[in-house]
Amino acid sequence: MTKNLVNEYRRRFLAGLGLMVGATLLPELSNTQAADVTARPENEPASSHKRWGMLIDVKRLTDGGAAMVAACQHEHGWGHDPQASAEQQAQWMRVVKVTDKQTLHSFSLPVMCQHCEKPPCVDVCPTGASMKRADGIVYVNKHTCIGCRYCMMACPYKARSFVHEPLKDQKPHSPRGIGTVESCNLCVHRIDKGQLPACVEAAPHAVIFGDLQDPDSRISQALKASGGTQIRADLGLNPQVYYLNI
Question: Whole-angstrom Cα distance, residue 81 to residue 62?
Answer without folding.
Answer: 27
